[in-house]
Structure formats: structure tokens, C-alpha cells
């Protein structure tokens, strides 16, 4: 389990789920929670509800969705080559997370 803050150690799928698991609220306030997909999936651990997932978890080589959809090439992107990045939706190229070309 990752260390979210000095006082909180939880499974990453308990992060960014709109449920407070940490006394200091860092499971919901962590920077990774600021950029999430608009699309949803059922996470492999924790709640069985459909939840958005942080962009940092998409195509990172770790299956976070039960169906593995976070690891397939269906997520909205913007740019090409060096400017290639994941985005929250196809509507805009704002709120992006840049990824390295080696992950493509």
C-alpha cells in the first residue's frame, strides 16, 4: 500500500473515490486525484462501483480496472510524438498528463 501521507497508508484504489479513508483527507486531496478520466470502470480492489480513475493510472502497465480497460488504447489523447498526452476527455486538450514515448 502506498504512503499517501505521514498518517495514511491505504491501497491506491481507495484513493480518489469520494470516500474519506484518511484522517487528513489526503486520499481525496492527493495531487493524483486532480486529473481523472471522465470515463469510468470498476477498480480491481475496493468498491465495486463504477469510478473514474486518475490519468496517471492509465496505460501505466498496471491493470487497475477489472476489465483491463485502463491498459488498452481507448483513452482520449492530444498531441503527437513529443506532445502526446492523455486527457480527461476528447472535448479538450486541457488538464493533461504528459507521458513518455516509451510507454506508447
Characterise the protein shown here.
It is a single chain. With 104 residues, the chain is mostly beta strands. The protein contains 1 helix and 7 strands; from the N terminus they run E-E-H-E-E-E-E-E. It has one helix at 26-29, and strands at 3-5, 8-9, 36-42, 50-54, 77-78, 85-86, 97-98. The strands form 3 sheets. It has a 3-stranded antiparallel beta sheet with strand order 5-6-7, with no helix packed on it. A two-stranded antiparallel sheet has the order 1-2. A two-stranded antiparallel ribbon has the order 3-4. A hairpin with a 6-residue loop joins strand 5 and strand 6 (85-86). The model has no long low-confidence stretch (mean pLDDT 80).
Q: Count the helices. How many?
A: 1
- H and E order: EEHEEEEE
Distance between the termini: 27 Å
Radius of gyration: 14 Å
The biggest sheet, with number of strands, parallel, antiparallel or mixed sense and barrel status, is: 3 strands, antiparallel
For the biggest β-sheet, the strand order reads: 5-6-7
Approximate shape: globular
Give the overall pLDDT as a whole number.
80
Low-confidence stretches: none
Estimated helix fraction:
under 10%
Percentage beta strand: 15-25%
Structural class of the helix and strand makeup?
Answer: mainly beta
What's the total number of strands?
Answer: 7
Amino acid at each position: 500500500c502506498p504512503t499517501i501521507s505521514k498518517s495514511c497508508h491505504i491501497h491506491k484504489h481507495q484513493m480518489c473515490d469520494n470516500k474519506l479513508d484518511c484522517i487528513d483527507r489526503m486520499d481525496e486531496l492527493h495531487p493524483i486525484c486532480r486529473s481523472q478520466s471522465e470515463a469510468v470502470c470498476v477498480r480491481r480492489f475496493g468498491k465495486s462501483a463504477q469510478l473514474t480513475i486518475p490519468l496517471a493510472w492509465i496505460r501505466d502497465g498496471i491493470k487497475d480496472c477489472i476489465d483491463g480497460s485502463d491498459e488498452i488504447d481507448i483513452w482520449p489523447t492530444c498531441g503527437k510524438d513529443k506532445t502526446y498526452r492523455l486527457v480527461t476527455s476528447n472535448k479538450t486538450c486541457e488538464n493533461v498528463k504528459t507521458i513518455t514515448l516509451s510507454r506508447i
